Each structure stands twice: as structure tokens, then as C-alpha cells.
Amino acid sequence: MAQAKPNFNVVFVGHVDHGKSTTIGRLVYDSGLLPEQELTKLKEEAQKHGKAGFEFAFVMDRFKEERERGVTIDLAYKKLVTQKYSVTIIDAPGHKDFVKNMITGASQADAAFLTVACQHGVMPQTKEHLWLLRTMGVEQVAVVINQMDTVDYSEDKFNKVKADVTALLKAVGYKPEKVTFLAISAQFGENVVKKSSKMPWYKGPTILEQLDLFEPPKKPVELPLRMPIQDVYEITGIGTVPVGKIETGVMKVGQKIIILPGRSGKGVPGEVRSIEMHHEQMQEALAGDNVGINIRGVGKKDIARGDVICDAAKPATMVSEFVGQIAVINHPTVIAKGYTPVFHIHTAQVPCQFIELISKIDPKTGQPMPGTPDFLKNGDVAKVKIKPIGNLVLEKQSVNPHMARFAIRDAGATVAAGICVELTEKK
After folding, report:
1. Taking the C-alpha atoms of 146, 151, 152 and 155 in order, what is their torsion angle to the nearest 10 degrees?
2. pLDDT tens, position by position, 387-427
3. Which residues are CB-neighbours of 312 under 8 A, at least 6 positions away?
4. For the whole model, what pTM was predicted?
5. Is residue 87's pLDDT more than 90?
6. Highest CATH level, class, for 7-213
7. In the beta sheet, which residues pair with residue 117?
8. What is the pLDDT of residues 227-249, one digit of tens each?
9. N or C: which end of the chain has fewer CB within 10 A?
10. What is the Cα–Cα distance from 369 to 362, expressed in whole angstroms?
11. Domain 226-311 belongs in CATH node 3.90.1300.10
12. DSSP symbols for 357-375
């Protein structure tokens, strides 16, 4: 069997209607993954909905609906095989999906394309998404300046948007010299898969070429086993099958594990009986793999989504309180002591209370600012002390960054995102 190409997860983000779905649809179509008759069908569909020209966007939306219905273990985002990688594309059309995919979704993004429409430039969500990417630890970003057809493929217009986004990248803490800016028109397929003749001034890569220019993700196999449970199935003839993505470490058949917190809140011990990936039995699975497993001595009532399967010899920590570094992204008023929103951490959702606002942080330097804040508002970065209401499995950024990130949601919106920097273990 040929050596499988390394998996690479990429998310497309950016302000609503700046062309994310169209870019992906075009990428899929021009790579030959969408048969002509399918596109014709989608064109008719788009016209029927009064959305002529939206056929490429419909490509992803159709997968989205398959995705919502699907129960296959390998989550069907869109797969695209390049020269170097087997790429999983995560489309994040609306903000809500973006957050879910980004934070509790099937995969942590290894890289992101930030999409900016050339005639509109930087918009509120452009900023918000960039902060989220930064806080969630997505290190590689490329900027897609789309809809170049609407500005007559003008190099000046491209450079103007590039300058604005460069300032934003700096403010958030990305190094602009490491970021590629692409000039494309997704609607007309310019510089998506095929090089465009309309922008002779543009010397950069196409979207397809850029995918292979990203650095391969480091597999955190040297860290202890952590697998947050995404879902628990009952499968006839096998029994209880928790499904999820191994965030760190290696899982082997016969390995002793502990599931935290478990229904009891004290952890459920077990032993890995079998591991299945893409409907094949495996002896072992590594960080980055989406698997379904069966565990000796563990039934459906013992475990649930949000629990974490850990190496029994090196379990994760359950916390009584922790210090987080957060970026406030989208709060309608201000955040004060006593605020109790829902924290989304790996696949868990736990209400947590802000018990102390320690200090604001200067986003440009990362250093604490003098004085203790009374409240936090949008755009603030701060250190805060948090108390979970219930059991929560979390690790420090310095111990296991993959288990340290969280998003804070309230009334259906993401209010803030952050990482755990210190914690007090629950005894």
C-alpha cells in the first residue's frame, strides 16, 4: 500500500459574503472533484433560489447538509489530495459554524485562509476571526484577497487591502512577512487552481499551490494520550463505541486508560479493546486520527461527549479553578466578576464563573498593564481567574497546548476565546 499523504486541516474564515464558500467550491470543481453534471444541477438550484452565481457556494452547503445527517466516523468535510497532503477543508460559512468547527469541531485547523473581498476590505468579522485564529493557536495563515474582478484586477486596490490587513496581522501578533497574500477571483476561477492571465503583476501562488506551501503539522505523539469524546454510539456486535479525535499521544490496543471525569466525576478506568479508523481495525492510532474505539468494562451510561480518554499512567487534570488568558471578541456590554457563561473546551461544555479579573494585557507586547480592571470589553486581552461549575478536564498551555484552549459562549454567540495558563487541581 502506498504511504498515505499526511493529513492537513485547513479552515476558510473571513467576513460574511467575502467569498469563502465560493472559493472552496471553485477549488473543488477546478481540481476535478465535482462532475460537470453536478455543477449544472447546482447552477439550476442556485437560480431557483434566486442566487445565480452561487453555484460554487452550494457545493459546500450540500456537503454541510450531508454532514449534519451523516453518522460516519470519519467526519465528511471536504477532502482534497494535493501533491503533498491529504487536505481536509473546513468551511466556516457563518460565524456560528466557524466557532463550532474551530473549537469543538472535528479537527483543529493546521492553517487558515483569511478571505477578504477586495472592494470591501477589512470588516468587523475579519478582525474577529483573526483574533480567534491567534488565540486558538493556529500559527499559519494566508490571506486571500478575493473578488479581484470587481476592481478590474487592479494592483493598487490589492496593495491597499494588503496594507490594511498587514496592520491587522501585526496588531494581533502574526508576522506579516510570514503571511502570503493571494490575489484571486473565486467566481471566475482566477488563481484558485489555474494561474490567471488577468493579473500579470501578481507573482504569488494559486490557492492550490499555497496548500502545499504550508508547513506540515507536528504530530504531538510525545505527549500523553488525550482523546476528547465527540459522540458515543451503540454498535450491534461491538457494544459501546466512543468516537473522537486523538489530540495528543498514541493509543494502542491493550492500553490501560482512564476516562475523565466520567459520569461519576471520579474517572472510569478501562482498557482499549479495539480501534477502528475509516472502517478498518488498527493496532494503534496517533495524534490527529479520528477513531472509534471499544473499551473493556465501559458502557454507554458511564461516559458522554466531553469526557476525555487519557493514558491511565499519566491522566489529565480536573480543575477546581484556573487562570485563563482571554481575548474578548463579541460581548454586547462588558464582562465583570461573577459573570457565568458556558465554556467550550475540546468537546466539553461547562458553565464557569469569572471570580477575579487579574489584569489587562497589552496585545502589542503581551505584557500585563498596571492596575486591576473593573470590567472587560470587546478588544480587551486579559488574565482572569475562572471557577468551573461542575467537572472540567483542562491542562495548562505549558503542559499540553492541545488541551488548554477554550471558547466562551453566551446566548448563541462567542464572547471570548482563550488558553489556560495556570490551574489548581481538583482533589
Report:
1. -80
2. 999 999 999 988 998 899 888 888 877 788 888 999 999 98
3. 255, 256, 257, 258, 269
4. 0.64
5. no
6. alpha beta
7. 146
8. 999 889 988 888 899 999 899 99
9. N
10. 6
11. no
12. EEEEE-TTT-PBPSS--S-
